Amino acid sequence: MASFGRFIRLALGACALVLVIVAAPASAQQVNPTASSVKEQQLLQELNRIQGRVSIPDQRSGVLEQPQGREWREFRNVTLRWIGGVAIVGMLALLVVFYLTRGMVRLESGRSGRSIVRFTMFERFVHWMTATCFIILAISGLNITFGRPLLLPLIGFEAFSEWSQWAKYAHSYLSFPFTIGVILIFLMWIAGNIPNKVDVAWIRRGGGIVGHDHPPAYRFNAGQKMIYWIVVIGGGLVAATGYQLMFPFYIGGIGGMQMAQIIHSVVAVLFVAAMIAHIYIGTIGMEGAFEAMGSGEVDLNWAREHHSLWLEEQSGRTGPNDQRPQQATAAAE
Predict the structure, then answer these.
(1) What is the pLDDT of residue 333?
(2) How far apart are CA 86 and CA 80, in angstroms?
(3) Are 291 and 103 in contact, with CB atoms under 8 Å apart?
(4) Which residues contact 303 (CB under 8 A, 6 or more apart)?
(5) Could you write out the three-class secondary structure of 154-214?
(6) What is d(CA 152, CA 131) in angstroms, rounded to the nearest whole number?
(7) pLDDT value at position 331?
(8) Nearest CA to 311 among 302, 207, 198, 111?
(9) Gap between the Cα atoms of 151 and 160, Å rounded
(10) How many other CB atoms are found less than 10 A from the CB of residue 187?
(11) Residue numbers in the chain where pLDDT is lower than 70
């Protein structure tokens, strides 16, 4: 009888075990990583399966795999390249077509032989410091996105590795003087870059770029104001997000880092495209424009055609007798 009772208990225990296995939740069976039919998406949905607990102070090390990281990688390797390629290559193509059809904006009244100070030495120093840093930051930053598919096949692994290392150092350290330059630009020229009604009329008349009309403008016209705010806002965004990437996890977690990288990269490539247009206008796009940031002085006829209201203000301050045949002594704002 004792052996028969023992048999009954064993049989009942076996039946209970079978019932537990059969009644187990389907989801628990589906996420078994050793099952041959397991699906990756099912594993990713079970966050407790990819994130555990650790005993070290850095609790972020407990995340073994982040599902959102796949979306971020897709953006970085595919979407960002399309955004950057369309913006930058598209801007270059547009400027080539524009130059071939419009050509350089010439000084229609010719040179007067007399000049007026447009930018002081300090203003030009800040401009060129910021511009130089920006160019190096742009090239080194674009290397992160386009270096491997475009540059690596041309120069090889060893040269690309060396170049990328120095580009990384330059990108990190030159961010500081660039940020200082953006702040100084904001403070120096904010008073002259507040939009007004004159800007609306300037835009309606094509700003002297389309056609041969030369609408009046103060020290900065609507196009220059647009560039100013692109530099201030765009530069501020890339600086803020760049420092978050440079000093990770001080503000947010891995999700915040990914969002900072997305904002940083998108704003940066659009920033580069806008600055290409700015460089075009300041060099081969308009006669006499480069002199403003080169020597700091512009011809009186250039100032009269492109910034007539500013020239009137300067003449009213200094008086007509202060303008000598070779050089006007009017000071910039």
Answers:
(1) 39
(2) 10
(3) no
(4) 116, 118, 310, 311
(5) HHCHHHHHHHHHHHHHHHHHCHHHHHHHHHHHHHHHCHHHCCCHHHHHHHHCHHHCCCCCC
(6) 27
(7) 38
(8) 302
(9) 7
(10) 10
(11) 1-52, 54, 58-65, 318-333
Instruction: Give me the pLDDT at residue 61, please.
Output: 63
Question: Token digits for 242?
Answer: 């760049």
Which segments of 48-186 are extended strands (E)? 115-117
Amino acid in the structure at residue 120: T
Q: Which residues of 7-27 are buried (b: 16+ CB within 10 A; e: fewer)?
A: eeeeeeeeeeeeeeeeeeeee
SS3 for 286? strand
First-to-last alpha carbon distance for the chain, in angstroms, is: 112
Q: Are 76 and 265 in contact (CB under 8 A)?
A: yes
pLDDT value of residue 35: 54
Tell me the whole-structure pTM to 2 decimals.
0.77
Q: How confident is the model over 103-157, as pLDDT tens digits?
A: 898 988 889 989 999 999 999 999 999 999 999 999 999 999 999 999 999 999 9
- Specify the DSSP class assigned to residue 220: S
So what's the pLDDT on residue 206?
86
Predicted confidence at residue 246, as pLDDT, reads: 92
Place of tokens 């120093």: 125
Q: Which residues contact 319 (CB under 8 A, 6 or more apart)?
A: none
Q: Is 130 exposed, middle or buried (0-12, 13-18, 19+ CB in 10 A)?
A: buried
CATH architecture of 69-322: Up-down Bundle (1.20)
Rounded Cα distance, 83 and 78, in Å: 9
The pair of three-digit structure tokens given for residue 259, joined into one six-digit string: 């969002």
How far apart CA 302 and CA 253 sit, in angstroms, is 53
